[in-house]
Write a structure and sequence with these properties.
Blueprint: E1 4-8, H1 13-16, H2 28-44, E2 56-60, H3 64-70, E3 76-79, H4 96-102, H5 104-112, H6 125-131, H7 133-141, E4 145-150, H8 152-162, E5 179-185, E6 191-197
Helix pairs in contact: 4-5
Bound molecules: glyceraldehyde-3-phosphate (G3H).
Length: 199
């Protein structure tokens, strides 16, 4: 049977500094995650009826931190611009504390309605839901198993969709770092979920 594995990129330099957005590289911790990721996926690969491993493709965004996280995976790779992290517009490259200080009205507006709030010159979660539609329909058409190496906001949308979560819940779905989320379609159309923490 097919599997969908979702993972955030390994910890990045920006993650270490609590900065949002950007296009930074992996930290040493993140690079260590990228190194063990192939073992984790290979150990979970289902076998097809004749015993051969099922084909797998790897989807990343166009940002360095997902490309670097996927680099050692021994499968065909596809880069999607649509998988790039939410565009924080004028807040890109800031910490949440800096946003609260420099753009207090924006900070409050986002806290009030995170689903609909659109960063000035950036995106909202609703924008992300629209932008990810082609990725999700390709994912549904695709019969192969897929590893999606993504970003927090992007994976909230994809996970929320696959788990039939209400839209309002999407911006607060917990997508932990350094954890592979394994989704297995069940015959009734729902998904089995397993969280595989990677030490
Ligand atoms: O940098 C973007 C974050 O991954 C998205 O998190 O929507 O909770 O601010 P947030």
């Amino acid at each position: 049977a097919r599997r969908i594995w979702l993972t955030r990129h390994g910890e990045s330099i920006y993650n270490q500094k609590a900065l949002i957005g950007g296009d930074s590289s992996l930290s040493p911790n993140g690079a260590a995650y990228a190194e063990v990721l192939p073992e984790v996926i290979l150990s979970r690969l289902p076998k097809s009826a004749d015993g051969t491993p099922v084909p797998v493709s790897v989807w990343t965004s166009t940002l360095q931190r997902t490309i670097q996280t996927a680099a050692a995976l021994p499968f065909a790779k596809l880069r999607w611009k649509a998988l790039d992290e939410i565009d924080a517009g004028i807040c890109d490259g800031m910490t949440y504390a800096q946003i609260a200080e420099k753009h207090p009205a924006e900070y409050e507006a986002r806290k009030k309605d995170k689903l609909r709030y659109r960063y000035p010159r950036g995106e909202s979660y609703l924008d992300m839901i629209a932008r990810l539609e082609p990725v999700i329909s390709e994912m549904e058409r695709e019969g192969e198993s897929i590893v999606i190496v993504g970003h927090q906001a992007v994976l909230r949308v994809i996970f929320g969709y696959l788990m039939a979560q209400p839209q309002a819940a999407i911006p607060s779905i917990h997508i932990p770092l350094h954890t592979v989320i394994e989704l297995t379609p069940r015959p009734d159309g729902t998904m089995g979920v397993e969280y595989i923490p990677v030490p």
